[in-house]
Design a protein that fits this description.
By secondary structure, the protein is mainly beta. It has two helices and 22 strands. The chain starts with 5 loop residues before the first strand and ends with a strand.
Length: 321
């Protein structure tokens, strides 16, 4: 489903921080995200921007939570950390490709709560990803698709990373800073695109891949709930922590990142998965081969000269109609 971009002339004015910013009309897929039945959408990065010096990853949730493309550990825009924009979308529009070294999209600072990103307690996080990055459980070296932080004191809020077995690792942290891990078995680092949704309803953690429930895990939160606010979030690698980054980057493409203060239901997740498939124009399966056409018989050749009869050449014609 193609969308015609709208160029904003103000972004071409001298001195503008964004030399090119593109806003796509709302698609059927985007409508499903924005108007999901459970509500609670607080951040939605379509990652549809173009250009090599574009700085803003526009928040399409309406909450103004724009991210910044390419930020180093000192929270300074770094051109070497800028992902490649405008690559083929995994679900809708275009997407961002990350180099596995330092590319990222970041919002916030671990030192301050982001206005509007509060009231969690329960949550859902969603994205599309395509990568072959190897998984790891090495301390502070988790290959991170999405990472979030609550504060420099408590460390992290949640992580969506790749397990050594190739599945999704989903970690949530309670207000005491203790992490709880759920590990999926559906492989996501096989180079194919995957729709990944992780939810926590204050009791159960769930991972869904391509519209299918992968795993349910019930952590013991030890009397401490999920943090109710967010300080910083990154996509493509690292996890903001105390003004720097921990964990590792991924090499691959990420698209349509959404964060909710609600728990998405299975029906909602499956609808968004199917719409994402349709929006990206994924090729359908090859149809079965049709039956062979009837055999034909060629015409009889002309009669030869006197005293020598020529046999006509018979040509068998086969093949499909």
């Amino acid at each position: 489903m193609s969308q015609k971009p709208v160029l904003h002339a103000r972004d071409h004015l001298p001195g503008g921080a964004d030399p090119l910013r593109i806003v796509f009309p709302t698609s059927q897929y985007s409508n499903a995200i924005i108007n999901n039945p459970e509500g609670g959408l607080v951040l939605y990065w379509k990652l549809d921007e173009l250009g090599t010096s574009t700085t803003a990853a526009v928040d399409s949730s309406g909450n103004g939570q724009d991210g910044v493309y390419g930020v180093d550990g000192a929270a300074v825009v770094d051109p070497t950390a800028h992902p490649t924009l405008g690559v083929a979308g995994l679900a809708d529009g275009t997407a961002a490709r990350f180099d596995g070294v330092n590319d990222n999209v970041v919002i916030g600072d671990p030192g301050a709560t982001l206005t509007g990103l509060t009231g969690f307690g329960v949550m859902s996080v969603e994205c599309w990803a395509e990568t072959t990055t190897a998984g790891s459980l090495a301390f502070n070296a988790l290959p991170t698709i999405i990472g979030a932080d609550t504060s420099s004191a408590n460390g992290r809020f949640f992580n969506v990373t790749i397990d050594p077995g190739g599945g999704t690792n989903y970690v949530v942290f309670n207000t005491a800073g203790t992490g709880f891990l759920a590990t999926g078995s559906i492989v996501i680092n096989d180079g194919a695109r995957h729709h990944i949704v992780c939810t926590f309803d204050a009791t159960d953690m769930r991972i869904y891949v391509d519209g299918v429930l992968d795993v349910t895990h019930t952590p013991s939160m030890a009397g401490h709930p999920l943090a109710d606010h967010l300080h910083a979030l990154s996509v493509g690698g690292g996890c903001p922590n105390g003004g720097g980054f921990i964990n590792a980057n991924i090499a691959g493409t990420v698209d349509e990142v959404a964060l909710y203060t609600s728990v998405l239901a299975l029906d909602t997740i499956q609808t968004q998965f199917l719409l994402g498939q349709a929006s990206s124009g994924a090729a359908g399966a090859t149809g079965a081969t049709g039956p062979a056409g009837p055999s034909g018989v060629g015409a009889t050749g002309a009669t030869g000269a006197a005293a020598s009869t020529s046999l006509g050449l018979i040509i068998a014609l086969g093949g499909s109609e």
